[in-house]
Specification:
- There is one protein chain.
- The chain is mainly β.
- It has strands at 2-4, 7-16, 19-32, 37-41, 48-49, 61-62.
């Protein structure tokens, strides 16, 4: 999760023209125990999130790699 100017964001992977593109999405959070954070608004539940979004920009094309 990313935080900027008092707002929280996640990076969502979306398909665009056959490529995977990162989209910055604002979210609202609930319970946060420092390890797990509840997201209460901003996601529908079927999105694929970037595991390590630092260094990735909104609308950037990325390569998706699955863990073996």
């Amino acid at each position: 999760m990313l935080a900027e100017k008092g707002k929280k964001y996640v990076m969502v992977l979306a398909s665009q023209g056959g490529a995977s593109v990162v989209q910055k999405r604002e979210v609202k959070t609930g319970v946060d125990d420092g390890i797990v954070t509840e997201i209460t608004e901003g996601l529908s539940g079927d999105e694929l999130l970037a595991a390590n979004p630092k260094g990735v920009s909104d609308a950037e094309t990325v390569t998706v790699k699955e863990k073996p």
